[in-house]
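Checklist before submission:
- one chain only
- standard amino acids only
- sequence pasted in full

Submission:
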Amino acid sequence: MTEDRFEAYFKEKIWEMVPAIYRHEDGLAENPDVLRALVEAMAKQAATLRRSQDRLWEDQFIELCNDWAVPYIGELVATRLVSALNKRARRVDVAKTIYYRRRKGTLAVLEELVSDITGWEGTVRESFRRLARAQHLLDPPPYNYRGRFTDTPPGGLADLRNAGAAELTNTPFDEFHHTPDLRKPQGKDGLYGIQRLLFYLYRLNSFQVIGVTPFEDSGSSGMGFWFDPSGRDIPLYMPANRPQDPNASANDSGDWGKWRTSYEWELPAPMRCRLLAHEHYAIKEKNILQLLSDGTLSETLADELRSLRGREYRREPRLKHALSELPSGTTFVDPSLYLPLKANLLVEVCGQYALYPDAVQVEEDDQTVAREDTKAGDLTGFSTPVTDSRMVIDPEKGRLLFVGDAPSDNRKVTYHYGFPAEIGAGTYNRRSIEQYQAGKHHSEGGEIAAANLLNDGYTQIDDSATYSPISNKLSVRNMHFYAANQERPYISLDDHWTLGSGEHEDAVLELDGIWLGAQQPASLILQGDYETVVLRHMSLDPGGPLTEEEGASSLPAIPLVITATIETLIIDASITGPIFVQDDGYVEKLIIKDSIVQSRDESVDAINLPESEIQMERVTVIGDVHTQCLWASDSLIVGDGDIVNTQCGCFRFSAANKDSRLPRPYHPYWIEQTHTLFVSTRFGNPAFVQLSENAPEEIKTGAENKAEMGAYNGLLNEIKLKSLHAKVEEYMPFGLLPVYVFET
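Returned file contents:
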């Protein structure tokens, strides 16, 4: 949407050119404003022409041109264009066509294609390099190519003494070697063969959330915490941090011409405990000089340390043992010297250096806990044998345990979480809220009193802390309550939260960017009379198990309970629990787009608005839908649809259970099995309601734009994948078979 205001300018300019008598008579005519409408139509075309003239120069360059000009520039270099829906890929493909052709058949260009065409991260592996075989004289010396975690030489037998490395099997960072697998590639089968070219794709996004209040475990005496503010087990994610220049720092943007393949910790994937604990130490002269300059070492101790110069240690116990063997060994292993020494000797090319504190960080009294005072471990029962560090992090469950003294009340965590799209409360870029001028601000967590929520005005939460309790507001007039841009505050409800308009009619309510949850049953209740209610980028926690384990305790859902009269209810890019009316509640029209609605209780409908008209676009609903009239497009209802008036509305390019009662269907799909439809339906899992690889093709490509049905339709995943297939076929080496493996 352009903001040049050309249309408004030309409307007034052309209108002023019309003689005043005609303008006057146009307003008094039996059918007024006909001339004005003609002028507005002319102004619209004049604005289009002006924009085209202004962009004559830009339209000659692929980086700046309008979308319509991309195919014309592509013709100049004979590019095979991908789908017009994949606009980013089209532009990048045309811009880099010559670059690709010069490097055709190389791993570098194939890895670049993953990022350029799909926007995902990925890595490419030649399968024959993972085949077990005997070494020959043409092979390079194996030492420099041994496995990072297992020391397995190329083509050699696996070193099974390192149990943690077994989880690398069948991943792009596999260090074991395999016999040929001649099966058809499917999932993790058929990956290893001479002709296989393996594309490992990372489709989930990694979002950073800063300054979160960790949730305390009640049974750990104030020592154990969850990173997730709701108290769920979640995998901590690693940020996408691929350096393009091997000589550049990890955060530098180098030249793609100096490509190297990614390390495991540079791809957006769940962080493994093995990776956060990965250490590699090297004793070099520059380290010794640094320790001398900052006063950590004396000249005598520095001379002793020089006897180990040039040595590398892949495990901390080996480093500690080597230091203890020096003449001043007891001094070297004393914590006051050993911790700063360990911090200085840690090399950059290891998981611990790369991930802490960049990917995950813990603060106590506004001070970051040092990397050398942190360990990774399994905190299944919030217990650890570690005694020589300040804390232990379990990145696979998202747990934290302090060791020694109890932590202060001023503690915060920063971490990354994975999610497919910018739906629900999250640290996305929501530029639209920056236009607001907040009258009240909240930060640092704690209680939100009624007086600090404006009935008529803008109230902003400035950070991602936890807030509780929050007071009811019973006199809403024009209330806007929202999170600051790129923040995700969590409001823990201790009871129902009621927002009522009181004596005001046609009130307006807008909630944006906030996550509502509770440890005990609670609801968001709307009372009174509203003209418009908007929920945008909201998460009304749908509840569910705290962990992936069977029989795990669950959190309650936060339903949206409507006892008010609402003309228009808008739910945009949000995640909610059940939505229903009570007492005399009435919603004239519900508009819901790019959202997820989940009911985990089969006895409770996901949406129950029996007298409403629902307009549903790109929505995933898990549960039954009961309403008067339904207009559904590109949506996925995993439940029964019970529509009272089937003569009203349309059900187009959407899916629902086969026994549903729905309005006029157009290209529908009837669901018969649901257990293989999603990767996970547990809120907190990074792949929440993401379609699985085994989902029916009619759902994965059944939307009007040939992408998937449901809330993630706008991601265009299937279209991007087909575009990648086409470009890989164009630029990969002749005679190889590409195999695509989804890692996330």
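Reviewer check: The radius of gyration is 30 Å.
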